Amino acid sequence: MWSIMSGPYGGSMPLEEIGWLRRGACRSSDPDLFFPLAPSPLQEARAKAVCAGCQVLEECRAYALRAGESDGIWGGLTPQERRRSRFPAGWRDSAAS
Ligand code: SF4
């Protein structure tokens, strides 16, 4: 059975993968806080503060890393922070040698 869930993150995602999002602390937050048109340090800090108190932070972070989510704050991480964790410092150097 393929279920779909719409939420603050917009679009449609398979419920089996993101059912935990129903329990997310961001559920009632302004989506612009997590998916701003113009990210800023203040917006990121405010979104991360919501994530810090979220009971599904680990599930959210693991999903975003596994799915390669390229936009928004997920699991308390910015897109840049997620990219860094997928490609640790020095990975280019080891590929070139
Ligand atoms: S960790 Fe953050 S982005 Fe993920 S569900 Fe919780 S509040 Fe939302």
Termini separation comes to 46 Å
Which series of helices and strands comes N to C? EEHHHHHH
Tell me, rounded to a whole number, the average pLDDT: 84
Strand count, sense and closure of the main sheet? 2 strands, antiparallel
Q: How many individual β-strands?
A: 2
Region (Disordered): 76-97
Subcellular location: Cytoplasm
Protein name: Transcriptional regulator WhiB
Cofactor: [4Fe-4S] cluster
Structure, described:
Its main location: cytoplasm. It is found in: Cytoplasm. Its cofactor is [4Fe-4S] cluster. [4Fe-4S] cluster binds at residues 26, 51, 54, 60. Residues 25-84 form the 4Fe-4S Wbl-type domain. The chain is mainly α. The protein has one domain (4-96). It is 46% helix and 4% strand. The protein is built from six helices and two strands. It has helices spanning 15-18, 31-34, 41-52, 57-67, 79-86, 91-96; strands at 4-5, 13-14. Strands 1-2 form a two-stranded antiparallel ribbon. Strand 1 (4-5) and strand 2 form a beta hairpin. The longest helix has 12 residues, at 41-52. The protein starts with a strand and ends with a helix. Mean pLDDT is 84; it is low at 1-8. Iron/sulfur cluster (SF4) is lined by residues 21, 24-26, 34, 50-51, 54, 56-57, 60, 73-76.
